[in-house]
Design goal:
The chain is of the alpha/beta class. Helices cover 36% and strands 22% of the residues.
Length: 146
């Protein structure tokens, strides 16, 4: 499967059960984010979904303010967001955001989120993941060794 850095490609990967692989390809591609990709690659018990989320409901962790976990110089941040807004106006199929399901922390896509908001979007696609909970209750494999 071709893992293009687009929302359309992510939706195809999700339908094919390959969203984790798409996420790794995206996070390791141009402008990648190996700080997110590496820990995700090490965990085989994560569940990935693709959802249309409210942009107001996710918590950015990077931006043009010193209070962010990863602050970006305001001029640099604005330049990148403005370029993305122009690309969206020209039809760019922006990649989905990457959001941790339980905390709603936006771990990749902080610039894209702001550009989408400026372009008038209120929702957008997000790859969300969480650790698979342990099985509990009916349907669990039964150990015959006990």
């Amino acid at each position: 499967m071709n893992f293009a850095p687009t929302s359309s490609s992510a939706r195809e990967a999700h339908a094919a059960g390959e969203l984790a692989e798409w996420s790794q390809a995206f996070l390791r591609g141009e402008g990648g984010n190996t700080g997110v990709a590496n820990p995700l690659r090490e965990r085989e018990d994560d569940v990935y979904i693709l959802a249309d989320v409210s942009l107001a409901d996710v918590y950015p962790i990077s931006g043009p303010d010193e209070d962010f976990d990863w602050p970006v110089a305001p001029a640099e941040y604005e330049q990148k967001v403005d370029a993305m807004v122009r690309s969206l106006e020209d039809g760019w199929d922006a990649p989905p955001l990457l959001v941790h399901m339980h905390t709603l922390r936006l771990v990749d896509g902080n610039h894209r989120r702001n550009a989408l908001l400026r372009a008038g979007r209120r929702t957008y696609w997000a790859v969300m993941w969480c650790r698979r909970p342990p099985l509990n209750g009916r349907g669990q494999p039964v150990s015959l060794d006990e």
